[in-house]
Write a structure and sequence with these properties.
By secondary structure, the protein is mainly alpha-helical. The chain is built from 5 helices and no strands.
Amino acid sequence: MGLFDNIKGLKDSISKTATVNSEQAKLSKINKEISTINSEIDSACTQIGKRFLEYVLETNEMPEIDVSDILKMLDPKMSRKVELEKEVIEIQKRLKDSMILQEKRKVEEDFILEKEKLDKALAMDLISQDEYNEKINNYRKRLDNFEEIKKIEQQYDFGIITLEEKNQKINLIIKS
């Protein structure tokens, strides 16, 4: 059975990697399109500025100028840019969720390995039952509160909280 489980795990891993690569390719394509739209918007803004400057230089007045043709051209581009930015956020969210699932699987595997190690140490009387229970409970709390701990780590990564706050919050979760 172990061989079949390993093959299934490998297949799942390859599938997830392909999905992540596909999402990253989409993200790259969308970012290129957003960059192109931004260039076109910059060009349109430059045209508006040139028209304004030319008019002011010719008339020495600060009147209204008609740029409605440029604004009409920009409207669909701006709408498309907003759509693409929303899509980028969704893709980034899916990628983050996928990475979190992979990390959670790794934490689960680590828990199993640590439990096996602790089981062996307990059987050999290297640790007491109380030490065993305390260590298992700490690992289990990390596993059970994985998503909450991950959010705290992301808050730190985004600079929302300090390292001390991060450690304090995580320790509070594990100790409770």
